[in-house]
Design the sequence.
């Protein structure tokens, strides 16, 4: 295992079994991986990658995670979406792509892998900016999304703007700050959205330097105060990228959290 936590971003992984399109744009696609683990069929897991919504980061850096999940028996879809720095990316294209993709991928995956997927709504796993997108999808599509595993999510866009995370990433996504485009923040900021009906686990490393853990603490506290079914798991010796790295010491905790969402393990 590399001592550089960012090594997972460029680590080679097997090619997906198939790539499907959920729209006409080149980035309105998803890589599908057939489950290879033993045991009963599992529901679809949709992986929403991070990268602060920027074009230079795409779904390929979650290939090691997706491969590991498929080996655990989950059918996996790595969704791609239009990102800032490319035509159609940012507001509202990025949000629209996530909603369309999450809605279409259960059908597309079932068609690609007949009999390999259990019935039921998909589980969303979102990392970093992908965590924001997963939380947004769950709140916006309550009848479509099952559970959510949010890994170091950007769970407060207004605060991320104030902190200037990744040097203007939120302003690039939404076209300005909360006082300039307040309706856009209201529409997609996890802290502004109505409580999701989806059972949600938020995981965050205490050593995270990209997205402060205080963001997850405050988000979960606010949701629990309104009766939300959301749990926070803090990992003491974990930074930002260990949560998506199957070779990290955090990975067994990620797997345990995922299984808790499918009812096979408890969440404390």
Sequence:
């Amino acid at each position: 295992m590399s001592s550089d936590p960012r090594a997972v971003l460029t680590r080679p992984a097997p090619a997906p079994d198939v790539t499907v399109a959920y729209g006409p744009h080149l980035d309105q696609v998803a890589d599908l991986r057939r489950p290879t683990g033993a045991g009963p069929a599992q529901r679809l897991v949709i992986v929403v990658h991070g990268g602060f919504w920027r074009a230079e980061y795409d779904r390929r850096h979650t290939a090691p995670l997706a491969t590991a999940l498929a080996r655990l028996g989950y059918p996996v879809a790595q969704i791609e979406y239009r990102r800032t720095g490319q035509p159609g990316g940012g507001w509202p294209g990025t949000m629209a792509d996530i909603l369309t993709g999450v809605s279409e991928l259960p059908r597309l995956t079932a068609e690609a892998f007949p009999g390999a997927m259990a019935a039921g709504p998909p589980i969303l796993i979102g990392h970093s900016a992908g965590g924001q997108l997963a939380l947004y999808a769950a709140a916006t599509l309550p009848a479509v999304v099952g559970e959510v595993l949010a890994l170091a999510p950007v769970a407060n866009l207004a605060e991320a703007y104030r902190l200037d995370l990744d040097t203007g990433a939120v302003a690039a996504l939404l076209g300005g700050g909360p006082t300039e485009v307040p309706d856009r923040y209201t529409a997609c900021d996890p802290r502004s959205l109505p409580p999701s009906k989806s059972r949600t686990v938020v995981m965050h490393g205490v050593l995270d330097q990209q997205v402060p853990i205080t963001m997850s603490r405050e988000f979960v506290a606010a949701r629990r105060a309104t009766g939300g079914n959301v749990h926070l798991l803090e990992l003491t010796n974990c930074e930002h990228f260990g949560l998506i790295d199957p070779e990290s010491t955090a990975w067994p905790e990620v797997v345990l959290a995922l299984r808790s969402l499918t009812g096979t393990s408890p969440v404390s």
In short: The radius of gyration is 17 Å. The helical segments are 63-71, 93-112, 129-140, 157-163, 169-174, 182-188, 213-225, 251-261. The chain has a mean pLDDT of 95.
